[in-house]
Each structure stands twice: as structure tokens, then as C-alpha cells.
Amino acid sequence: MTEPADAAARRAIAPVICYPTDTLPQPDISLYQSARQTAVKTGEVIAPPREAATFRVPAGHFFRISSIDGPQVGDLNLWNAHDLSERFYSGKTRALHGTHLTTGHRMWSSFPTLRPMATVTHDTLGWYGKDEYGGSVHDVIGTRCDPYTGNLLSGSQYHHCCHSNLIRALADETGLSLAEAEPHVHDVLNVFMCTGFTRDTGQYFMKASPVRPGDHIEFFAEIDLLGALSACPGGDCSSEHSSDTAACFPLLVETFAPADGALDGWAPPPVNGYDRSHGR
Ligand SMILES: [Zn+2]
User: Fold this and answer.
1) Model-level pTM?
2) What are the residue ranges spanned by the domains of the chain?
3) 53 CA from centroid of ligand 1 (Å)
4) What region holds the DUF1989 domain (predicted)?
5) Per-residue pLDDT tens for 230-246?
6) Beta strands, E only, the chain
7) How many angstroms is it from 50 CA to the middle of ligand 1?
């Protein structure tokens, strides 16, 4: 294929940010952090290796995901605790904040609500930034490992991908059957996972997570949440996933309640203001 004469000029056009965020409602991080100082622990749950666990967090409370026994990545799903149809929207979160999340970024919900579900308030891996390969931590670019892609690529029948782990955990929590639970499982926040796109081919890559026991990421719940976290069969994702070969460790989820009055002036975000008439 031959290039047009002005190919270089066309490539040289500077990019424009799709969604400038100057008008995006900003979280009051200092209010959240001062409320966090007053918070007491209310519960904890462990996501065992190659399994998922669910947890509930009332609006205005915090939850923390921690690496404990060894480097491990987690796949996180969030739903409105009262309505599973409102769930985390990875693609729009990526469009608004970029490929990876850290302190101050938010996990946005699906249409038609499109509102913050959770805000990252603390990230011990915030120092990582972007590495020389373009890799970074806590991505919203991967989907979740699943048995269908494994079957497509290698004919496998593997049952402990994050997709299946999340389905079993959601079914156990809600009483839904596996078939009923499956459509509620959605693309994830890849907690602690280090990923990017290769510069030459644009392919999704992963590399060994920099997470170490003691590292954690903490969130403020903007609405009442049901969460599910899978300890990915890929472990630290240094080599492969969708099998039992990687070293795999548990993840800890803890919840915290701030003191009465610590959030004075704060209210859960309203649902999106679009009137939904869609031109009719
Ligand atoms: Zn996974």
C-alpha cells in the first residue's frame, strides 16, 4: 500500500482529548480523607486464590483491597446494592480518566445512571506511574479472564477464570442461578494488575504486578454497593492466566465506617440528568 503525499502531515496533527475533564464533578478528596481518619473497621472478607468473594459497602463508607500473602491481582465488579442493572462501566471510566486508575479517579456506573459509584481515595502503588513499556497499574482496559476466550484459543474447559469466579460469588450472594447471575458480571477494574498496549502492534500486554503484601487500594463508596472481587488465576500475571499453573494468593477486602458527622455536607451523587427522550 502506498502512502499519500501528505501522510506525514496527516500523522503530525496533534491529538485532542476526547473528554476534557474540567467540567467533570470533582470529589472532595480532603473531606473523604478527613472522614477516613475517623473511620472504624466494620468487616472483612477474603477472596481465596482462584475464587471470588462478595462484600457490601453502604454509601459514605470505605473499602480497602489489600495484597496479603504474595503478589496477586484482583478483578473487581461493582453493582448498586439495590439494583444490579446499575453496574460499573469500565469503558466510560477509561474514556473519562484514562487507561489506569489511581487516587482521585472514580468508578462510573452504566447508562442511564452514569454517576460515580466509588472514588479511589488511597493507592499505595500510586508511585508506579507509567513504566518504559507504557505499563501502569489498576487498569480499565482488560476485560476479565473468561473461559470462552480460553476455549476459542485453545479448546480448554477451565472453570476458575475471574468471569466464572464472579458468577459463582454473585449467585451465592443473591440466590440467583448461575445462568441468571452471568449477565450481571461485567468488565472489571483490574486491581493491582500491570498492563498496557505494545507500541508497535497495539496489543494488550501484562507483566508481573509490582504489588507486594501490605499494598492496598482504598475506595469511598458513593452509593450503596455490592462488590465482588476475584483473586485472578493469573496470580501476579507475570506469565499466564486461565489455568492453575501460576502461583496464586488471597486478597483481603475490609470495610470501614466514618464517625457520625464526619461527612457533613456530603450526599450520594444523583443519577445522570439526561432526560432520556432521545429526540422523540
Ligand atoms: Zn482473571
Assistant:
1) 0.94
2) 45-257
3) 14
4) 48-226
5) 999 999 888 866 677 88
6) 40-47, 52-57, 62-67, 74-80, 83-87, 106-108, 116-123, 136-139, 189-197, 204-207, 216-221, 225-231, 251-257
7) 8
